[in-house]
Amino acid sequence: MEGDESKDNHQMITRYRGVAMHPEVDMAIDEIVNETISASELQSSVELSLDDIEAGEKIKEQIREEFDGIVQMLRFNEVGHEIFRSWYVDGRIYHHLLVNESNPKAGIQEIRNIDAVKVRKVRHVKYKKILRLVLKLLMVLMNIISTKTSQVKHRLVVKLY
Fold first, then answer.
1. Which of 76, 74, 91 is closest to 14 using CA atoms?
2. Handedness of CA 35, 41, 43, 47 (dihedral sign)
3. CB neighbours of residue 33 within 10 Å
4. What does the alpha-carbon distance between residue 41 and residue 134 come to, in Å, rounded to a whole number?
């Protein structure tokens, strides 16, 4: 894949959404979503199974409580069909988790949906790491030069902060 990958992702998602607007495709997607997400007023549309997890009942109960809280914040029982449909069509789903910075132990306070088209991949290049690798390579090369020609002796001293 050449070029800007984020632009390609944007075009892909836009194309998927365009295809999903065709009546036949829309009906097929609705059928898949309805078969996948079934909800009733008495029962939640999503459950967490911890049967195969080796942990104490107290920990499992805390995990279940946190899971139920997230399901409630997402309003999954009300809009689960839309969430699943969005994921199914776009092939990805993003959420912004809001945490109170002054009290991080309080956990997630709110969950906001982010449109997949608006998300771009960002890479942070770690220049110090790259510089260290270049310097190590340079030192190895200087070592090779100094051993091949005994007349040339160089000493390389570099400090990184």
1. 91
2. positive
3. 19
4. 62
Q: Which of 161, 92, 89 is nearest to 131 (CA)?
A: 161
Give the three-class secondary structure for 46. Answer: coil
Quick check: 85 and 16 in contact, CB under 8 A? no
Identify the pLDDT of residue 17. 93
As a whole number, mean pLDDT of residues 88-99 equals 91
At residue 113, the 3 state secondary structure works out as: strand
- For 84, counting Cβ atoms within 10 Å of its Cβ (0-12 exposed, 13-18 middle, 19+ buried), the class is buried
The one-letter amino acid code at 24 reads E
CA angle 117, 120, 125 (to 5 degrees): 175
Gap between the Cα atoms of 127 and 118, Å rounded: 27
The answer to whether the CB of 88 falls within 8 A of the CB of 33 is yes
94-99/108-114 β-pairing: antiparallel
Strand partners for 114? 94
Residue-wise pLDDT tens digits, 6-16? 568 889 999 99
- What is the end-to-end Cα distance of the chain in Å, rounded? 37
> Out of 23-37, 89-103, 135-149, which region has the weakest mean confidence (pLDDT)?
135-149
Q: Which amino acid is at 74?
A: L
